Amino acid sequence: MTPKRLLADWPSWAGRAALLWSLLYATGAALAALTGPAFGYALLAGGTGTAAEAAAAVLYGASAVLAYALLRRPDARWPSTAAWAVVALCLTSGFAALLSPVHLLFFLSRNQPPVDWAALTNQSLAVLGAVLWGYAALAHRRGARGTCLHCGGRAPAPATPGGSTRAGLVAVAALVPYAALKTAWALGVTPGFTGTGRPGADPEYTSDLGLWLYDHGVDVTAVLAVLGMILALALTRPWGRRLPRLPLLALGWAGTGALAPFGAFLAAVGVLAWTGATGSGVADHAPWVVAVAYGGFSCYGLALGRATLLHQRSALRTCDRC
User: Fold this and answer.
1) Do 42 and 119 form a contact (C-beta atoms < 8 A)?
2) What whole-number distance in Å separates Cα of residue 85 and Cα of residue 25?
3) Using CA atoms, how far apart are residues 196 and 198, in angstroms rounded to an integer?
4) CA–CA separation, 209 vs 181, rounded Å?
5) Of 177, 217, 272, 304, which has fewest CB within 10 angstroms of its CB?
6) What is the mean pLDDT of the chain?
């Protein structure tokens, strides 16, 4: 069977794959709990029998039982509903992997801690588990409802051009405050910065190349924000349909999963600091910077998720298996 054919038949194997993944991941967590932090499970950097590894073994062991229920109870609806909680659990375990592309920027920084490749591999496997469990939950839910396992028994509704365009524009607008602020700081105008020196360009951590770019008015993170805007537009504009689809979808969903919760946390911290309830948590930064500029990542992540979903739906075709 070719890989393309195997992927096309995902409803037939997603449940078994989720069961096998859960068993392997729970076994690794149990071994880590018994022998000491290993295989990238050392969430709390504890010793033998740490609570984090033991809890992971119990939770993912329970998920294996749920995967068995998915296979044995095809007509019941509760297993697929519970399966989405496992998806959330997997994403929590693998959240750091969604931010791992920043490691590619090592040439723009220095004095950073070395990459823990075992932990990064473990987190990536957790993200893979989220994908497998998502497919398993979807296949089981459709089977319980008696609809087509591949498409849900309905021809997909065409994407609304207006909704897609709005999502892209909202995503772009959400990053404008951050990109504008960081560029202003690189140009020597420092609104919202209450400290001394160059905001966002610590010589202890920024590489010589990063400092050189900053001295010439280019903040690397502002450039990344602009690239994020281009991604949102590529997902929502006609010219983006001429680009490879899978890389766009992968970047879109990864950005959504990483930035939406991260931005929501920063927005909440910024608002609390703005009201005087707590500190901003970011030294030498005014609360509004954290709430508006950094908190905007949440709005961007949500809008990017909407844009990615619409782009994905627009490429669907009527299922020929119904």
Assistant:
1) yes
2) 16
3) 7
4) 21
5) 217
6) 84
Could you give the CA distance from residue 26 to residue 36 in angstroms, rounded to a whole number? 15
What three-state secondary structure class fits 109?
Answer: strand
CA distances, 162 to each of 159, 166, 236, 315 (Å):
9, 6, 9, 16
In 3D space, the residue among 119, 63, 65 whose CA is nearest the CA of residue 94 turns out to be 119
Amino acid at 253: W
Picking from 233, 229, 232, 209, the residue whose alpha carbon sits closest to that of residue 220 is 209
- Provide the whole-model pTM: 0.72
Nearest partner of 86 among 182, 15, 173, judged by Cα = 15
Tokens 């979807």 identify what position?
138
Dig out the tokens for 28 from the structure. Answer: 């690794």
pLDDT digits over 69-110, tens only? Answer: 999 999 999 999 999 999 999 988 888 887 776 666 666 677
Could you count the other beta carbons within 10 Å of the beta carbon of residue 221? 17
CB of 296 within 8 A of CB of 289? no
3-state secondary structure of 61: helix
Residue with the bigger pLDDT between 181 and 105: it is 181
**Residues in a beta bridge with 193:** 285
Cross-strand bridge partners of residue 285:
193
* d(C-alpha 278, C-alpha 284), whole Å: 14
Question: Would you state the torsion angle of the CA atoms of residues 297, 303, 304, 310, taken in this order, to the nearest 10 degrees?
Answer: 170
- In order of 14, 63, 72, 133, 148, the CA distances from 68 in angstroms are 12, 9, 6, 12, 22
DSSP 155: P
Enter the DSSP assignment of 47. -
Q: Which of 239, 232, 238, 278 is nearest to 259 (CA)?
A: 232
Instruction: Compute how many other C-beta atoms are within 10 angstroms of the C-beta atom of residue 61.
Output: 16
**DSSP code for 291:** I
Residue 260: which of 124, 86, 99, 89 has the closest Cα? 99
Cα separation of 211 and 230, whole Å? 25
